[in-house]
Amino acid sequence: MVTMSYSYKETRLNLEPSSSSYIVEIELPTLSPPSRSPRKSAAKNEVSRATASAIYYRKHHSFPKGFLWRVIEDETVLSIRTVDICKPKKASDANLILNFHFQHPIKPTCVALCDPSDHDALSIFVLDTANQLYTIFLRPDSFRKRSFVETGLGDTCRVFQPNAFRNFKHPYRLIAVSNNQLVATLSDGGHILFDRNTSHNASQLPWKETFHNAKGWFRSLLGARGDLDIKAAAAAVQTDLGLDNASFLFTVCLDHRLRIWNLNNGQILAALDLINATRDPQETGKWQLDASQTNLIRIVGNTEGKRLCVTYSPVGPGEFKFWMLESDDENSVEVNDLFPDVKLIAIPPLGSDVWTLADFSVTERSATRGYRLWLLWKNNVAYRVQELKFLLEDILDAWNNRWKSVFSDTAIPTAQVSGPSDPTCPTEKWLQLIFFPGRFPRATVEAALNAYEGAIGKPGSSSSRSSHGLAESICSAIASTSSLNKSSSGDMDYEQFRNSSEMQWRKFYRILLELDKPRGEALALSHEPETGMSWVICADGISAIRECSEAEQIVYNPHSTFEGSTEVPTLVTAGVNFVEGFSDGMLQLCHSVLRPEMFEESSKSDQERLQFFSDKAGFWRQITEEDATQVTDALGPNFNLVTTRLYDRVLGTLNEVWDCEYQTELPLTELGRKIIVRGVQDLAELQWNIGFSQLILLVHMEFEFDRPEDALHNRVEVGVIYRNLLIILKRLELVRWLASTQLTAPLPKTDKSNSMSGGSPMAPKRQVEDHRVLTALEGNIGHLLELPELRSIPSDAMPRLITSIVADLCTPASNVQLQPQYIQCGLLVRDRADLAAELTPFCEQDPFSTYAQGRVYLALKDFTTAATYFKKAAYGMSVPQANPEKHSSGLLDETEWNLLFAGLPRYYAHIVALFEQQKAYSFVTDFARLALQFVRSNMEDADKVRTEIQCRLFSGALATSQFELAHATVVAMKDHALQHSCLRALIQRMCDNLHNSELVNLTFPGLQSAVDDILAQHCTDTVDVITGVPYHQILYAWRVKRNDYRGAASILLDRIQKLRQLGEGDQVTGDDVLDTAVTRQYLMLINVLSCVDPKQAWITVEGQPRPIKLGPASFSDLSRRRVVTLADIRKEYQAELDRIAAIQNNQFGFTADDEMEIL
Fold first, then answer.
1. 124 Cβ partners below 8 Å, 6+ apart?
2. Please, where are the H alpha helices in 181-240?
3. 137, 487, 616, 669: which could join 593 in a potential S-S bond, CB 3.0 to 4.6 Å?
4. How far apart are CA 967 and CA 679, in angstroms?
């Protein structure tokens, strides 16, 4: 039995686009009315699974080069997308997915693609069950711009009904020889050659049909019912063997024979057994092939007139045969069996399962490097992939000893069991598991939710899910099955509730896994010779095959050698096996102790840190004698195998740095970035397990000794290894967080639809999103990932390059710096301060990182914490620098950068502006006062800076009603225009909020006259002196406070006049009918003038525009300025009292002009 080592790792991707706007639905015309009944609606999860799929690589043009086509939705939709990993420097991504809707089901074996040599385009040929031949011509922009296809296909889609298919011919397979020639193999063993018609009647007859048959005309008619003849081609390949004007068709027929056709004349040039076996004529049934076995022949090579042909026979144990094809002209082919006496039997994967070879691929590496053979094995929905590199000269040795396998991670991830001391809610853990990026498509999760709701008898609706969110709908469904009850003691039974919820989550997860299994069924194997990339195309996914990293090779091949010895695999395996015995609770405890060790600075010595970790984690309590013996059996007594050099080698496998010898010029496409992200997810998890287990094992070995002289630290640099492991784990923790955190980003301008509101009338309506979903890793470093020019690297280097990039991202010494502070800035730009806060433990203590933490907490409205960080960063962010690094992921603009590294006043002014944007005015005042403390008269633009800060300080003080601070700020202002404006605002705010006594008590040195003028102007503008702001009373108090009694009297007189104008002067305000608003004002007026020297007890009054005539002695009807004395006012007061008394006694004049007669 051949033992195969794992040299490759598959990276599985689902085909769910990052944005629904990338999907374009296109309805195709038909010449035959649909005869099928309307299809029953199926679950989205089933609709998205393909029945046939493959990747086609264009030969004549470089980008887009690879196209993945899939037959989905009950074989009525052909979905096509690009699958290039990299792109030219200035090219736009071709992200659109084109879904062509056919009126009749597609024949899955009759889809062919071709790229014209004279046009940068893609030609698609499809036969449906109505035997209509579709020809679709797509430009590269069809996969970039929605408008390119939404406006209609027009002449780029043509439908043709072949005459032969109308009568008695039944197509079985379709092959595109070129853009102008097709071959359709028939069920009767013949084939039809379609040559494109270039004459004037091409619109009526676009194809010329030529029929060739392997048997007579009459026998051909006998197979007209469509049954497969024994000579029907199960597989077919066309080649010209590198000769001009030559065209040969190689068909593997159901009778186990290989037939070679000359397509130029329809003659059969040769017919021989598929593996050159000698067969008994009586055992024809034994050698008959199954029609479902279609991948049986491959032809490779570039030498003119010479090709290598590889055939596979599924009969018996499964045998490969290698043929050399040679030809000197277009009329003959010589077929030579390279190994007639050798049986090359395919070796299935190890195990008791029955594996079937489903597909294989052969490529020529180069003229001197031989060939590469890839095998795809299937067992139900499971599959395995094997690879063999060989030269024809030593194929026997290679076949027996050099097979390599691709590791498929079949382990099913699950959430840890929840316990009473678990810091994480079980719901949160399960949601993180289910919605881990790239694990399950949304359609599969929705289908699982439907099935779960049906099982618990709670039907849900898609409309409610769209409004509440899928995660919330799942939580709601599961919460409906559990309730929090009281225990027998009367307390709330939280343990029962947690166990019940855990059970329901696991039930839902099992349903989800069952629905997800069919998506992983392998349909085809594809290999791209130019880059060396191999792919496994699944029903609803695709797997890229890359080389294993050093750490992966050790873990996947634990019994193999590494760098010439088994020491490294032994130590790694011992650590992994040691930790595997830990309970979930112990693992959680170890992680909780490890976290502060990774993120916090420690003043302890290395030995003290190890002792602290051992005491806090306490995992030694769960270690049995068997566990300890297992470690010593692997590493020897007293762990003699362990040395510092051995640990350096182990740590070296976790520090693979990519030192690319070629210049990187090609950016990655979105698919390429997804492959990197998925690879990072897998490798970071594996390396984390290695690093974590090695750290636990190191602590265990350090304190596992009988005599002090046997302690590990006496011969191994335990402290250095411990610190290095912490550095590696910290980097891996950051990478894992980035690769598992999803966020939304706006679509690039090139991806936005030019027809968002419109579209083709034949395209089904679809809600178009204006954003895409991506991981934080892709969003932050995706633009930095590039590959070398493909012509400058070996033809099979791509799988290694991908692994190099993935491994490099995971190492602390990576070429790509993952600086958390800049990632936080990018998240703040995306309004994801909640995610940015999770990165705080990873940040350093440098000034910009500290400043970034302040910005994070500022966005979270935690102003106190933000202020603390801003103050800590003040000195470092304000010291002038010659050329400061201005990088903030778009968080800071040029104006804000100019305030940093320019002194403390400008730094604090910047912070003031930030708090002002958040309307945190109490912090505005705090930092503004700090800024003013550092303004020096000798600094540049000192007055300008001071004025700006004073303005913000005043605004903050005003907003927080700190009127004394606002008063002091206004007084200190030197800009008189700004000072007067702020003074007016201060008076307005204090009056509006009825802080009248505080206003009157403020001193306003040098501004008292301005305050008086402002209040006087408000009094002049005030009409309603009853319900409005009492400016008259405020000004009265202001003037009395400052001994301006005559001024106070004049404002009282003005209020008396406005009271009379409002008609409110006669309203009784007390028990006495003579106690009115006007009489009260008269009393105040008399009192205030009584405080003045009698010779100065006078004021001047102005005439009113509309005087009110109250009597000959009234001064209310004056039309010009007049002096009014105290005696006049007393007389007027008496007249007012008499008038009120007369009214109370009903003494009125008979006409409007009559005066009242006062008795």
1. 69, 78, 80, 111, 112, 113, 134, 135, 136, 137, 138
2. 217-222
3. 616
4. 63
Task: Place 218 in a pLDDT band, splitting at 50, 70 and 90.
Answer: very low
Give residue 924's identity as a one-letter amino acid code: V
CB-CB contact of 246 with 240 (8 Å): yes
Provide the residue count of the chain. 1159
Min mean pLDDT across 330-334, 618-622, 1151-1155 is at 1151-1155
Confidence band for 555, pLDDT divided at 50, 70 and 90: very high
Cβ-contact 1018, 1031 below 8 angstroms: yes
pLDDT band at 230 (very low <50, low <70, confident <90, very high): confident
Contacts of residue 758, Cβ cutoff 8 Å, sequence gap at least 6: 150
In angstroms, rounded to a whole number, what is the distance separating the alpha carbons of residues 375 and 522? 12
CA 749/CA 144 separation, integer angstroms: 11
pTM value?
A: 0.87
Q: Put the strands of the sheet holding 267-273 in their side by side order.
A: 233-239, 248-253, 257-262, 267-273
Alpha carbon of 697 to those of 568, 571, 605, 722: distances in Å?
A: 14, 9, 19, 11
What SS3 state is found at 1075? coil
- Mean pLDDT in residue range 735-747: 90
- Which long-range contacts does 855-862 make (Cβ < 8 Å, 24+ apart)? 855/824, 855/825, 855/828, 855/891, 855/914, 856/824, 856/828, 858/914, 858/915, 858/918, 859/828, 859/831, 859/833, 860/833, 860/834, 861/918
CB 338 within 8 A of CB 362: no
User: In the structure encoding, which two tokens stand for residue 1050, read together?
Assistant: 């004049």
Calpha distance 139→790 (Å, rounded): 23
- What residues does 336 pair with on adjacent strands? 324
The DSSP result for 554-582, as a single string, is: HHH-TTS-BTTBSHHHHHHHHHHHHHHTS
Q: How sure is the predictor about 530, in pLDDT bands with cuts at 50, 70 and 90?
A: confident
Q: Which residues contact 306 (CB under 8 A, 6 or more apart)?
A: 241, 242, 324, 325, 326
The neighbouring-strand residues paired with 1100 are: 1123
Task: Give pLDDT, residue 255.
Answer: 85
First to last CA, the chain: 138
Task: Please give the distance of CA 128 from its chain centroid, rounded to a whole number.
Answer: 38
pLDDT digits (tens, 9 = 90+) for 571-609: 999 999 999 888 888 888 898 899 999 998 888 888 889
DSSP state of 1068: B
Which residues are paired to 1098 by β-bridges? 1125
- Long-range contacts, 448-452 (Cβ 8 Å, 24+): 448/508, 448/511, 448/512, 448/515, 449/473, 449/474, 449/477, 449/508, 450/43, 451/511, 451/515, 452/477, 452/478, 452/507, 452/508, 452/511
Section 113-127 average pLDDT: 91
Q: Comparing C-alpha atoms, which of 688, 697, 584, 586 is closest to residue 631?
A: 697
Q: Where are the beta strands (DSSP E) in 61-132?
A: 66-72, 77-82, 97-101, 106-114, 122-128
For residue 922, how many C-alpha atoms fall within 13 Å in the half-sphere facing its CB? Answer: 3
- The token pair at 562 is 């590494």
H or E segment at 235?
A: strand 233-239
CB 1121 within 8 A of CB 1143: no
Report in angstroms the alpha-carbon separations of 281 from 272, 421, 1119. Answer: 14, 75, 137
Write out pLDDT tens, residues 131-178: 899 999 999 888 988 877 777 777 888 999 888 887 777 888 899 998
DSSP states of 924-963: HHHHHHHHHHT--TTSTTHHHHHHHHHHHHHHHHHHTT-H
Residue 67 forms beta bridges with which residues?
A: 56, 82
Cβ contact 902:880 at 8 Å: yes
Torsion angle (degrees, nearest 10) of CA 651, 657, 661, 663: 180
